[in-house]
Design goal:
about 25% strand; flat; RNase H type-1 domain-containing protein; nucleic acid binding; RNase_H-like_EbsB-rel; single chain; RNaseH_domain; 4 strands
Length: about 110
């Protein structure tokens, strides 16, 4: 079997995709605004987390990105807040003047 055909057969996508109930779409921003997207993950084996950050301009074009290691942070709400704080610091480092920050953690928003 040729390598490309073998790869395609191994990575074949299912023909029927179930609709996602959490489909998210890019919301066009006003001119000059920058939107941050941050996400975080926790280690089950250790007490640390990591956060990833992406900054996009009003057209959705990538401006900057970063990741950060948070040692001794095993609380998901705290990890989310630290990732958002890192996104704000990144925006300040590259002189973003108008930043849109959205937090998708229900628990963090309530507190």
């Amino acid at each position: 079997m040729r390598p490309i055909k073998e790869w395609e057969s191994i990575n074949e996508r299912p023909t029927a995709m179930l609709p996602s109930s959490s489909t998210q779409y890019w919301e066009r921003l006003d001119y000059g605004l920058v939107k941050e997207n941050c996400d975080w993950a926790m280690s089950k084996a250790s007490d640390f987390s990591v956060g990833g950050i992406v900054l996009r301009n009003h057209n959705g074009i990538f401006i900057a990105g970063a990741w950060h290691f948070f040692p001794s942070v095993a609380n998901p709400e705290l990890a989310g807040l630290l990732a958002c704080r890192r996104a704000i610091k990144l925006a300040m480092e590259i002189n973003v003047r108008r930043l849109v920050v959205k937090i998708y953690s229900h628990v963090v928003v309530i507190k």
